[in-house]
Protein: Bifunctional ligase/repressor BirA
Organism: Cohnella endophytica
Amino acid sequence: MGTMSLLSLLEAEAGQYVSGEEISRKLNVSRTAIWKQVRKLESDGYKIDAVPRLGYRLTGKPSRLSLQELLPKLQTKRFGRQIKLLETVPSTQDELRKLAEEGAEEGTLVIAEQQTKGRGRMGRYWVSPAGKGVWMSLLLRPPVPLPLTPQLTLLAAVALSRAISRIVPLEIGIKWPNDLLVGGKKISGILLESAAEDERLRYVVVGMGISVNLDAEDYPEELLEKAVSLKMAAGAPVNRSELVASILVEFELLYDLFLEQGFAPIRTLWEAHSVTLGHLTTLFTPQEAIEGIPRGLDDMGGLKVEMADGSLRTVYSAEVGVRQE
Amino acid sequence: MGTMSLLSLLEAEAGQYVSGEEISRKLNVSRTAIWKQVRKLESDGYKIDAVPRLGYRLTGKPSRLSLQELLPKLQTKRFGRQIKLLETVPSTQDELRKLAEEGAEEGTLVIAEQQTKGRGRMGRYWVSPAGKGVWMSLLLRPPVPLPLTPQLTLLAAVALSRAISRIVPLEIGIKWPNDLLVGGKKISGILLESAAEDERLRYVVVGMGISVNLDAEDYPEELLEKAVSLKMAAGAPVNRSELVASILVEFELLYDLFLEQGFAPIRTLWEAHSVTLGHLTTLFTPQEAIEGIPRGLDDMGGLKVEMADGSLRTVYSAEVGVRQE
């Protein structure tokens, strides 16, 4: 029995009780199987009344992203003023990239309940099931030269971690450059895709994937050691519309600060949230593995790493492996 | 009378003489008009015998880009090993970008006899008439982080200026970052379009437009003060296949040097060819106009500018206006 068939049955009765016997007969399953599916639906955010003799009744559905709910919460000037909300999309990044090439304005947002080809860094697959996460892409057209793009990568991490902390009481650490961690496990992925003409940035598409209300069973088993959702970490589901609004507000605030005052305030915030600084780390660049202790960010946004001989090296692009000390 | 009609007539006779009288009658034009058109065709590279009483005979056509001619000259390992040669294309950049997204290999080249929507920096129109220039785009997949892209911009300028100098005896100066000048006039445009994922460059499409055999009448009048072709500057037409081969060889050589030894040797070469260093210059960034004397390049590829108060500023992206001193 799939959950959809039980769900359809309950939805068809529009809030009326359906007896276990009737369900059992119509779906040709045992009473125990029904009970399991009811628990699964509840964990997905459905509210179901179970009353002996009367049976089961659907009293609530999981919250969905809706512009009606989102827009009133949006205290922004530009970010999210143009929103494309999709049920399913292969990738919000590709969708927004198309809009960017067609001339979409800064702040344009593409958000989807579900991605079928969500991408993480290096083309890795990103788990993005329906209705449980925030999968979205935000368009920036920063008037800064290409070499400063790393600063935007770091800015995005600061904006997201602060926005999440406003909604969910969790301590969030930033692993260089922009992974957000709770208790050492990843709760979000950020991917900036840039298009430039010489040293002029044409646009940056900031992809954000946040595991909001995923349950353990939504993850492939091998990911459970490394990934966690906000719901799993905080013990309660999180309103996704509130979270999206919070991210857009915080992101716009920091972005405007960055355009006005440059990288210095962003650097300070990033360093304060970092879990990378001060720990012996191996950084895998395309050319080599660098081992040292990251000490801070430089003016451009590179990571200053103290090597064994005391010298400093600056790294702009690498995969991070944290060594046990 | 258009030149094409005279040309078709001569081509139809396949090397036989056509009398001036016959041409005059068939095209309904004066003998003087025929003579003018013959001179025009000759300046475009056609060879025409004119013999009193016999008339005109086509004995040679302008050189066309052909892979048969190009490939034997190509002493490269990767650059130009995949070539897409097109008669007409809106823009070689857009064409190669598509191939890049589909996974084309480093060194892939798109080259066209004519571009109908050739683009320069900032989306400016680029004059690229049929058969007279080298309009091409080269694909790089450099394993360097995004902030180092300015180094590639500078590398491209050095490669082109050296490659051209090997074929045409002209002194070529580089105006920061990558305009090539002869006698203060622009002979070529280079446009790097980069696509990046976080700090990882996915690819760089290097667009090169070189005004090879253009004549004064190919330019809009307002451009003649600022632009010149190799033919106009050197006084003789240039073999385009040789030029393309020379560019690919020189570019690969310098690119491999860069991957092996880093930016230092490229910087030295760029500084030696520069016409920007040492002259009072105004640099227009998106934010402001900076006036000072460019003194050299920094480690990242930025331009170090000495300000009036003696302080140094580094500029990564700007339009350059050179002031008269």
Notes: The domain at 281-320 of chain B is CATH 2.30.30.100 (SH3 type barrels.).
